[in-house]
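Here is one chain, start to finish.
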Amino acid sequence: ALAPISLVAGLAVAGVVDGVLAALPSSHGADDSAAPIRALVKWPNDVYLEGRKVAGVLVEASTGLDGPPLVVVGVGLNVLGDCFPPELGASATSLALAGGRELEREPICAALIAAIVHFADDFAARGLAPFLAELAERDFLRGRAVEVAGQPGTAEGFDQAGCLLVRAP
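Its structure:
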């Protein structure tokens, strides 16, 4: 039941990324008609911005003998990086490269913690169902070619349990 928490945390991260970028001074001058940048969630645990990875989410769960399960959510968000090693250059990005050159990490970290706690509490109370519509809207893989266990297919979204749906060719 905890497996989809990485998707839920990804939604929280995507929302924070969108909020940070929306708060930046417009690089479009007086033209506010440009569509806002929107972070997308890539199953099972990444966040993408303009086709490149900006964040990753890792979740570990432990069942204690003397208490309830413990879940640790780790987030790596590229904030200020402005260059990446050649092997990552085409596939990675940062908030700085998206226009946030003068960002401070601490407020972003505080926003991430608050968003993840809020989303995790909602997930604990209501499960994945309330998140499925936003996951569908932010689905990076939908319609893309994927390979699962050596078999090609097309990503078709998520099921009620957060599993990736793949249509065979």
